Amino acid sequence: MASPSRKIGRAWPNWALAILGLVTVTTAACTFASPGQPSGMAERSRWGTSAVFTPAHATAGDAIAAFFDSRPDTVAQPFDFSHQIHLGKGAVCTDCHTGVEQGPRAGIPTVNTCMICHSQIATDRPLIIKLAEMQEKGLDLAWNRVYDYQPQAHVRFNHAPHVRAEVACSTCHGNQAEQTVARRAVDMNMAFCVNCHKAKQVSNDCLTCHY
Amino acid sequence: MAYRWGMAVDIDKCTGCEACVTACHAENNIPTVGAGQASRGRAMHWIRVERYYEGSFPDVRLKFRPVLCQQCDNAPCEAVCPTYAAHQNEDGLNAQVYNRCIGTRYCANACTYNVRFFNFFNPEWPKPLHLQLNPDVSIREVGVMEKCTFCVQRIKAAKTEATAAQRELVDGALQPACAQACPTTAIIFGDLNDPESRVARLARSPRGTKLLEDLGAEPKITYLQKQPWHEPDAY
Question: Residues A133-144: what's their mean pLDDT?
């Protein structure tokens, strides 16, 4: 009598099953040893494998995704904010991203920033009414970052010196006037940064960015 | 002109209070590993205060020597790194690039001063200490080597600020956390390329010695003391 399990046993010899199991366990270990800043720390194993799978990729999955260039360039947001409309009406980047000239972070505007203009403009639109209600309740929108670097890249970036060096916002963030919801239009890898630093003859020392 | 960061530590002023150690841990997100792992030599202190006893009871005199990365000009750690993670940068800093480090630990073995530390674990902080981490400093993960950076994040911030204001960095405007925390100002930090800076003047002082100078690592930290060091009493 040939049971189904015996059939599988014949098709897959023991050594092949052992290798399959080993690969599965190793891949799982790589995937679950997720690296990161304090927020992600709870998931990490204290005794786990290195958070850095390769210097560029945290996990085997990341490496495969990068190889096929399958990183999604959109991020889910609370609502579809249109950069196109706002820039078209004459607003400039620094009106809302106010931190960009002062320090490292450009900053994502709060509801209060929206209401500086929208207490007067387009007050009858359903989204604006919602915003006004949120401001009254003291709530804020949970925007998600579009551009970010992985913590294990150990990269520091400061917006202010780049703005002072007259690097246009669109150099790194694409032409937002053509975009509705912000999406990752430029692939910021190390070559992207280094090429510009070379062209502008600024320091390419490792400690310029990595510390 | 490029900077050449250096330090002078006045041993006669040091009281061994270890404020520098605490400040360094807070500034640089250095994790603690617990008593068990510390007893196995896995504790990480980018700066430590060594104790030396001179004389015999009751005439005992205590001396303290804060030891941190000496940022050597001829650093033994750099020569052995297979990935150039440890290298000399243009400001004379002995840089450690975490991205490049593959954790061979050759540098820690080569280091004359025992100031390089290996991350045997992913760092953890007991709550609520995880909320006080410095956002300007990387969290180093398991498998990479780390060491004193002369607070490179502060150097970087001060340089950026100076460039924004279109001026040169002023001597004393920039301090690493250990120097800032030192209650007796035993630790002086500055630019050795500027002959008039405080640290450059102290480095020329006849009281100055370098740690294990005869080994030829050419450290950039000068230890100042009035009396010669009595090595035989060092235990």
Answer: 90
- Contacting B with CB below 8 Å, chain A residues are 35-38, 41, 44-52, 55, 151-154, 156, 158, 160-161, 164, 203, 205-208, 210-211
Q: Is there a single domain that holds both residue A63 and residue A166?
A: no
| Interface test mutation site (partner B, options A47, A203, A207, A209, max chain B beta carbons within 10 A) | A207
Is the distance from CB of B8 to CB of B225 less than 8 angstroms?
A: no
Is the pLDDT confidence value at B229 over 70?
no
Are residues A101 and A34 part of one domain?
Answer: no
The better pLDDT of the pair A135, A2 is held by A135
Nearest to B65 by CA among B48, B53, B81, B78: B48
- A211 → closest Cβ in B87, B149, B163: B149
Are A189 and A89 found together in one domain? yes
- Structural domain contains residue B234: no
User: Each residue of A22-33: pLDDT tens digit?
Assistant: 555 444 444 333
**CA-nearest residue of chain A to B162?**
A161
Please give the ipTM for the structure prediction: 0.84
Kind and range of the H or E element at B47?
A: strand B47-54
- Is residue B50 within 8 Å of residue B65, measured between CB atoms? yes
Q: Which of A17-26, B7-16, B160-169 has the lowest mean pLDDT?
A: A17-26
